[in-house]
Amino acid sequence: MWTRRRGALVAAAIMVVLAGPAGPVLRALAGLASVREASAQGFLPPRKKPAKKKPGKKKLPAPVVMPPADDGTAAPPADPDGDATTPGDAATPGDGADGASGDADGDGTAAGGGAADGDAAGDVGNDGDTIRMGDDDLPAVGADVVISDADAAAARTSAGGEGGRKLETLAMAYGRMSFDLVRDPAPEATMGLRPPAEDILTFRLHGRAEGTGRFGRRAKIRVAGRVDAEVGLNLGNTLGVERYEAAVWDTYADLYGSWLDVRAGNQIVAWGVCDLLTPNDVVNARDLRRGPLSPLDEVRLPVLALKGKAFSGPLWLEGLWVPVAPANRFDLVIGDFALLGRNAPTRNERTVGAIVNGLADDPTLGLAIRPILDIGSPPANGLRTGELGARAGLSTRRFDLSAVFLWGHEKNPRIQVDPELTRVISETPADMLGPTQVAMAISQLSMMGRPAIVTSYPRQFHVGGGIATRLEPIGVKLEAGYQPQANTVLVKPGAGPLLGSTRDLPHLAVTASLDYQRGDRFNAVLEASHLRVLDVPSDQAVFQFDRDQLWMVAARLEWHAQKLPLSARFTGFVDLSSPSFALGPALSYQGSDRVSVELSASLYGGPAGSLGGLADHNDEVAMTVRYGL
């Protein structure tokens, strides 16, 4: 019985054997999410065992190129924490994961570019008779891989290299209980309406399953789905957040040609080179309902798309068509991270949230306040909102260079509030602001033919690029993105988005990244990012910014014990402009190849209105139990 570690070594050798001197090596971005599809989607890996060199085996020649996960993410060669999630991933403003931190051969060359999101993961020879190797074929490849010829032959057959069919299935479920460390008193009622209280206990059951069918060397079909059941209890012993969801996840078909690969269906399209704060991860929408420390593989939402990649030697070109524009998910009133919820920036906005929550179903006033409630409704996007994108790259032995372009839409809604309604909400004292005042203001505007609130998802252009290399044992990456007209929320100091105004202003973001990795025992990523908004009026500031700029530092550390089934992970984001922070330490114990237990914490802090300050009352500890098949 081959172990998963042995299978990884076997599959890696096939790439070298099949490539030959005539075929170009298609290099892969290897960074944050996972080295194989199973790990990238959160399935439990086997407990780690030190690799041992055996007599008579030969070392892989350099370079060995390991492709990224088929879902578009990239990662270190294992899941060192055994927590069945993307190691250390977290969602932040502008975050992403498509780094180039892997150097499978340990020769100091960059591994990136040519197969950057798992599209063209094999090395194509002149005869076109090689097989496509996805990350599910390469579970774990390190710098000191050794392999025998017999192993290579066995792996060729297992991966469909002889033209046969292959079906793989995986499943995982976890249960999580989290407890709020900051127990705020229940909010006082205003004008007979009580704002939603914060959730003290949260229970979540999450399950996912996937199946991958391979049809010879030229085709693959993947089907995946996820289900969630989430319930929150607040101080009043009443239900807060209550969600029951089921969704088709990354489900697509792949066709592989000698110089062109095509993928159609729901997919993750991770563009960029940095790991934590990449400016160019702009294709997929995000689930923002659980805060900035949520695992990235649960934050990115698959997008329906058609993608093709052409490659020749060190050059590659990718085209993308998204027929229906995606939009981010967020909570409006209920939830610890709701826009108008318990932690909204101002008391008046929290009061408006209480009005919407209490009167949404009221037969008299419900229709009048409907424009506010519609802020949280998903857009009715159709084929006319289609998006187009392109990415091109050059991959050499020493560096990988890429450039991206997207003609798309804003993922967050542009909220345009009529100045008269803004005046009523902002100037009326919070203890006197009630449903009558808000409803009357909206009704008067309606009689005048003026919409009280308009939400839209305007078009935008995005251009960017990145470069990645390795100066062993350090990976170095630099990335930049620019949007000439990005939706910008301008506020007075201390105000929130409902009381602010929106304008289309230029955004420029730059991120530098360093990573250090030694096998699957320890790896670290440190990134610094600067986001600048141009042409901001002198008497206003960008929401959550130090007027017109935001300086961020992010770090991820992962450590796996050598002789014990223990691992530790730390993820942190610090806003130097405020300053504020979001920190996520975790400790995991993997009792078997199928079961793991994790203890984690989410800690936030900072001044009012900052990135960490808005979540300052959401500190929590959590216990998660996972079971994988």
Provide structural commentary:
The protein has helices at residues 4-19, 37-40, 149-158, 296-299, 347-359, 370-373, 419-427, 435-447, and strands at 58-59, 146-147, 165-180, 199-215, 219-234, 239-248, 252-256, 260-267, 285-286, 300-301, 303-312, 315-322, 387-395, 399-409, 414-417, 453-456, 459-471, 474-491, 501-518, 522-533, 541-542, 549-560, 566-575, 580-590, 595-605, 620-628. With 629 residues, it is mainly β. The strands form four sheets. It has an 18-stranded antiparallel beta barrel. Strands 1-2 form a two-stranded antiparallel sheet. Strands 9-10 form a two-stranded antiparallel ribbon. A hairpin with a 4-residue loop joins strand 24 and strand 25. It is globular, with a radius of gyration of 25 Å. 51% of the residues are buried. Residues 1-147 have low confidence and may be disordered.
Which terms would index this structure?
629 residues; 26 strands; mainly beta; 18-stranded antiparallel β-barrel; globular; 8 helices; two-stranded antiparallel sheet; 38% strand; single chain; disordered N terminus
User: Which spans have pLDDT < 50 for at least 5 consecutive residues?
Assistant: 1-147
Arithmetic mean of pLDDT: 77
Count of alpha/pi helices: 8
Overall morphology: globular
Radius of gyration, Cα only, in angstroms? 25 Å
Biggest sheet features? 18 strands, antiparallel, barrel
The overall strand count is 26
Specify the structural class. Answer: mainly beta
- Strand % is 35-45%
Quote the distance from N terminus to C terminus: 17 Å
